[in-house]
Model the fold of this input.
Amino acid sequence: MNTLPQQLANGLLLGSMYGLIAIGYTMVYGIVQLINFAHGEIFMTGAFGALTVYLYILPDGTNMLVAVPLMLIGGAIVAVLIAVGAERFAYRPLRGAPRLAPLITAIGLSLALQEVVRNFYPGADRARAFPGLDATHDIGSVTIKDADIFLILAAIVCMSGLAWFVRKSRTGRAMQATAQDPDTAQLMGIDTNRIIVVAFAIGGFFAAVAAVAYGLKYGNVDYRMGFLMGLKAFTAAVLGGIGNIYGAMLGGIVLGIAETLASAYIDEIPGMQQLGGQSWANVWAFCLLILVLLFRPQGLLGERVADRA
Amino acid sequence: MTETTTTPPADRAPAPAARGLVPLPPATALPLLLAGGIATAASTFLAWTWTAEFPGDLTVSGYPGGLQWLTFTAGLLTALFALSAYRVRGLRWLTPAGNHAPLLLVAVGGFGTTWYTVLAITIKLGGLANLEPGGFIAAVASLVPLVGALALPAEHRGEDLATALGKRIAKPDRIPAAEATTPWVQRAAITAVAVVGLIVFTYGIDTEYGELFIGYLIVVVFTIWALHTAGLLDRFSQLLAGNRSFALAMGFLAAIAFPFTQTDDHYANIGVNILIFGTVALGLNIVVGLAGLLDLGYVAFLGVGAYTAALVSGSEFSKFSGVQFPFWAAALSGAAASLIFGVLIGAPTLRLRGDYLAIVTLGFGEIFRIAVNNMDGDSGPDITNGPNGIPSIPDLSFLGFNFGEAHDVGGFTLGRFANYYLLMVLIMALVVLVYTRAADSRIGRSWIAIREDETAATAMGINGFRVKLVAFALGASLAGLAGTVSAHVTYSVVPNPYQFAGSTPPNSAFLLAAVVLGGMGTVAGPLLGAALLYLLPEKLVFLQDKSLLAFGVALILLMRFRPEGIIANRRRQLEFHETGQLDVPDTTTLTDEPAVTKAGT
Done:
């Protein structure tokens, strides 16, 4: 049986999740040239925010059609608050400091968020069960779950919403202006601090959407989930061209498909029999990052040269 | 927990006149300090509690024990500083500026450790009833110098309580220059400091229970702070600058002397681990502190070195079990393997902006762990034996000297870990040499130039990519070298320790925290940071679970309030003085400056 369509679908789904998280990296980077290393952890707190709504606020046995939107709201509130708080209290005071300072702050923030969840969220020192949407549907030779439908719909809605927002709304156009030239934008009367906060907030919201999709798809969340997902979402952002929101989504999908195909088929290549399977998927994703940086550092859709001082 | 709080607005208090913070006649202040200090020291000769259940046996009258020694030291120091404030001949050098800040700080140190002990007894044994009269006497006696110090007349007019307190513990702007002394006196002073330093450090490593370590930390922190505000640390660093080679030799001797003071090989083990950790942190400091490249997967290079050494060690579980390299060859191949990986990772990424390097190294660190985990012949090629790692690595043997056996040297028995400790001292000396020579050379200045402003440095003709690659590769090979020894010390290599963040060192987050906390760009900073970060979780078991949380918060707060770390690089600090960049001079804080948005890049 041909497994290729199924693998492509899996890659597309995984890639949409990377893309949603990558939006947070790419928007913040586009405006303040800061890699928010803690973004993976914001994704993780979004998952725990949604889990809190499910476990402690909703009555048992709530219909998932009602529960999922409420969990999304809960996760989004937590993730957006943490993203905006991080900007306000950790990054903003360091604007103008050398690059190393915010990077180290971001590492600290990332460790602190992980440890706060591990130490203080009940039962979070190991994986916690998340309600799954496991009913399956067959479309031709491809089997997908309800959670996958949620993911695809959420990704499409969020991306179109974001595209509209950035192009048409006043704030969105102010964002474009700030990304192009923050000083001139400020002279034109744009409150750049507010724009930066909005960028962090949108990133947090998208991360929360991805987090709920992750929980529904895999059925559990843990305090370390943000680390690798964040790393790969960053890879996706670089792959697509950092600073470009469409690039982030495209990069995510390319990365997801590449990773899925590599783990499924690479062992059929002579000499690489033992390098297939899920355990090596991360290695291939990482190798892709190195290759992209080597041959096309500006990314698939990026225009600017990457080595701006 | 991400908030970084600024100083809270202090309550407005009426401006104190020339009086102290405690309304006592200023004339009583110094006598209170002196008498209190002596009384505190004397109280340790009494029994503080009735049962030996509290560790350290504080039940004996007649001589101090356990935590009482710390109180005794603090009381004695208080009395000495008080005598120095009286301008007693022979002790004036203790407070060259004649300021009162050191008095307050040593008094707080004595008060802190005594009250900590008394409270710990009360809580641990369940009630005040467990205190003998001696405990109460000590508590009262240690309060007296504190009251005395606060009653000292104010040297500055304080506007409100917080600034008044802040000024009381501030270092004076000008320290009178030391009198000219003969070289022999200077060398004697350095020797004395090295001996005291060795004793203090050894005491810290040998603390047997958490309470003792906390009391030790209280005394040491406040004493060093007091010496700093007295201006003695500045004087000492001038002394060091004048006798550099002698000071280095003394430091080296003190480091070598450490295992001879140990009767238990367990503490030598802690010493080895601190040295390995410190060496790796120093290597990372070349990359982060000098060249300004954020390497988040540094521990993977340590892992590469360790695995290489394990593979060629002759261990029967190694893939190449027939191969047994002599140590020099194993060390070289470990360093070379790390070098290769460093170049492989560095070459594509160092052409780009620094941010990419951070994320690529983070990825590399994770990939290394995944890869060695998988290379067990089952889910990958059979090289590293997967999660089981490579156990039973034989001990090193060098010119007939077997590191695994105890040796008698001049009446002292050096155990297995003491042997490795001495080997690591040599390696650390090598790394310090490489570090200082590189930092002062043409390439070191290129690194600093690149760190400060890459565009300007490139315009001045520096090949940015090449010098960055040299820094990165040098850092990687030093880590690999340390890794080869660490593989032999721990008998086995397993994938787990080589990750980004974990609760025990070494891991990349710990290393970065050690460098940043200690002071980027200095030699002593990362070593101090490594020793602190290793000892804290080791001694305070209850902290182990929360140590990563504390590191995360500490990194955020450090970057916000003291980005130059505990030991600031003085030259850099001056350089930064004009630009107000990464290192912030002591006198100003970032909050005083208007928030500047970085001009369009």
